[in-house]
Description:
Chain A is mainly β and 69 residues long.
Amino acid sequence: MRISARNTLKAKVKKIIPGSVNSEVILEISEGIEVTAIITKDAVQSLNLTEGADAYAVVKSTDVMVAVD
Amino acid sequence: MRISARNTLKAKVKKIIPGSVNSEVILEISEGIEVTAIITKDAVQSLNLTEGADAYAVVKSTDVMVAVD
Amino acid sequence: MRISARNTLKAKVKKIIPGSVNSEVILEISEGIEVTAIITKDAVQSLNLTEGADAYAVVKSTDVMVAVD
Amino acid sequence: MRISARNTLKAKVKKIIPGSVNSEVILEISEGIEVTAIITKDAVQSLNLTEGADAYAVVKSTDVMVAVD
Amino acid sequence: MRISARNTLKAKVKKIIPGSVNSEVILEISEGIEVTAIITKDAVQSLNLTEGADAYAVVKSTDVMVAVD
Amino acid sequence: MRISARNTLKAKVKKIIPGSVNSEVILEISEGIEVTAIITKDAVQSLNLTEGADAYAVVKSTDVMVAVD
């Protein structure tokens, strides 16, 4: 399946922290660059996510903000 | 200002594509890793964004999805 | 690619309304049930979306609100 | 109250799964078509949501993504 | 219609700036406190929004970030 | 840090309700005007948020909906 979200970044699952409805998933995009996702507990199960697995971080362009110092 | 959004990634502004209300901003996170943001035209101006400038890509963890092949 | 977004609804592309940065895509989920998406112009091109094509409407569960009369 | 979110789909509450801060609400849009929403526990209470009740799934058009096989 | 979005703030429409697909709507929440919304051009028409009209700014709690100096 | 999100509203932290992954933060924007945010538990800690502290409610303009009676 290809999706309209403009940002699909190759990543590795570094850590999974389960919660009651949602779980926190830390993805390593490249050496020293991490992205944190909060997805539902069911989604972690249905995608069979495990630490070390290959995955993608997917973000819509309207959900990316830009900041400057 | 520090913000609750969990993902604040150092980046460089690679390209800015203006539109009538929104503009598309392409940010380089690291060698070969780009993120596309859509922000308002006014935000591009108020942040004085120019191509080559230092910036951050900021994304809430609830806006990051995870995908697998 | 399988994605953590909990809502992946089979649909048919009914109408595409292009804009300067974004385009409006009207998807028919089933007889008389339509969903409107706003995605980038580039996404419409990269997905080769045409009216009448099969597609999916994909929505994260945290982006669905519930209302009552 | 009428709202700018472009997608207001008639639905029936099929299931409610409570969590510590958020709750998962499964809505039936039509025969065999379900949408999952994650809303706050307080919102479930203030809307008096119960399984079998009439409701609407409300989604902004910028939160709908399009995917193809 | 009552909605699960936790933030429904009484406001007055101060300014409307139309675009090709989206329009910018500036809402005054109280003396000197303004909120900017970007909604579709069609939504502005279907809600018959005019400058000076009473309205509400509606935001899901998961879309509100917190920042500190 | 300055951010592209168009809405940065001065506020005071009125109440913090912790959850397993997320926490609910109630912000007072001005006399009688409150905004509820749901952010991660870690974000509450990393921003050292305490009840009574000065803060900002930050919302992207694409995340603000408009409603009318």
